[in-house]
Design goal:
By secondary structure, this protein is α/β, with parallel strands linked by helices. It is 42% helix and 19% strand. The chain contains 15 helices and 16 strands. Strands 3-2-1-4-5-6-7-14 form an eight-stranded mixed β-sheet, with helices on both faces. Strands 10-9-8-11-12-13 form a six-stranded parallel β-sheet, sandwiched between helices. α1 packs across α15, α3 packs parallel to α4 and α4 packs parallel to α6. The longest helix has 18 residues. It is globular and about 65 Å long. It starts with a strand and ends with a strand. The C terminus is likely disordered.
Length: 407
């Protein structure tokens, strides 16, 4: 099957889609499909480089206008020609010109069109740049998304978000895969002479709960002097400077380290060396970092905003409501748990990931969905088919998604 994926920036510091989209493309190519990935030029993520080694054809284009809709004249022309030669067109993301022309030409040439918003329609994401998104939704995105043959959600929570916005298309609920860490050596946290490590690994951004984490750590540091908090991740919107000021104000410099972004072997080494992982995220359509921590055998503390019910179901960590008090209670319990039990919990998490989140299985589900889009017949079990088209009035107001009538 000839499959085209289009996405904007999959750069080294661009977050989850810069990892998940190339890995999906690579897994599809390993399964024998002819896959092309079209994106903007730039410092591409390691996952993008790896997917080329697996047979993915990469097409990159310069961007002329790097504000709001991120316009690329060359990509507008190039994507049109790529779509002509494809059977399935899979657009990644919303809000930008690339997404609109992907939908336009896929429909014009009668190609199967899937769109993955990649968390962009989650409530917290909608709140950011609200006026621009409200305008884009009214003019382009609602119509573009509504005309796709199938939408892709990484979780049931993301699916519910689509429905609240009035999108009635079929939706395939397929989680991202999780990369399994290279088997080089066993986890080494027990070698650190009594020092214990708690790792935050994600973007340094307010939506990841970073300020709440420091507030919580300020309440716990004295009680747990043997513990150190390591915060790894790329800086967004000058969040690191604000965190440094907060750490200094609370006199936590001795127990908190900001180590910057980590990738590849350095990331896996860090995961091998820690006792606990924490991500008090405020919004998440998947959360690759959580999956990677579990795959590494690390016990996880996260929020219920992350769609990882398997953490509770498999007893491999804590998943709590948002709020400093809830986070403090969970971390206090986790940090009081002895290393032997934490290791047992981590092993359960490792088994859970290996059995449910291999990229090969994700690619199989995606390919079966593509075939259904082209050939019809019974929908795969993970596809919620089109809902009733009862009248709906859909708008974006404040940070709420309002749906009136027909629900």
């Amino acid at each position: 099957m000839k499959i085209l994926h289009t996405i904007g920036g999959i750069w080294q510091h661009a977050g989850g889609p810069a990892e998940s989209v190339p890995r999906l493309c690579g897994a599809l190519a390993e399964g024998g499909q002819e896959v092309t990935l079209a994106c903007w030029e730039g410092d591409l993520s390691e996952a993008t480089k790896v997917c080329q080694e697996k047979g993915v054809r990469l097409k990159t284009y310069p961007v002329q206008w790097r504000h709001s809709i991120w316009y690329s004249r060359e990509m507008s022309v190039g994507v049109k020609e790529l779509i002509k030669r494809s059977e399935i067109v899979h657009g990644q993301g919303v809000w930008i010109h690339l997404n609109w022309i992907t939908g336009k030409w896929a429909r014009r040439y009668g190609k199967g069109l899937m769109i993955s918003p990649r968390g962009a329609l989650m409530p917290n994401a909608l709140h950011r740049s609200y006026l621009k998104k409200r305008l884009a939704w009214a003019i382009m995105d609602k119509r573009n998304l509504g005309r796709a043959d199938c939408l892709h959600a990484c979780s049931e929570k993301e699916l519910r978000g689509f429905r609240k916005l009035g999108l009635t298309n079929p939706v395939a609920v397929i989680p991202n895969g999780v990369e399994v860490p290279p088997v080089t050596e066993e986890r080494s946290c027990a070698k650190d002479n009594g020092t214990k490590k708690l790792l935050f690994l994600s973007r340094l951004h307010p939506s990841k709960g970073v300020f709440e984490l420091i507030e919580t750590w300020g309440r716990l540091a004295k009680k747990f002097p043997e513990w150190r908090l390591i915060m790894a991740g790329a800086d967004y919107h000058n969040t690191r400077a604000r965190l440094e000021a907060m750490i200094k104000e609370k006199k936590l410099s001795e127990s908190v380290s900001l180590v910057g972004a980590v990738y590849g072997d350095e990331k896996w080494r860090l995961l091998r060396e820690v006792d606990l992982f924490v991500l008090p995220t405020k919004t998440e359509n998947f959360g690759i970092a959580i999956g990677e921590a579990l795959a590494s055998g690390v016990t996880v503390v996260t929020s219920k905003e992350a769609p990882w019910r398997g953490i509770e179901e498999n007893d491999c960590g804590w998943r709590v409501p948002l709020g400093v008090d809830n986070l403090k209670e969970a971390l206090e319990e986790a940090m009081s748990t002895d290393r032997t039990k934490l290791k047992e919990m981590g092993q359960r998490g490792k088994v859970y990931i290996s059995q449910n989140y291999s990229w090969g299985r994700v690619a199989e589900k995606m390919l079966e969905t593509y075939k259904w889009m082209l050939g019809g017949g019974a929908a795969p079990a993970w596809v919620e088919e089109k809902r009733s088209t009862a009248k709906k009035i859909v708008c974006l107001q404040g940070n709420k998604n309002l749906v009136a009538a027909g629900e």
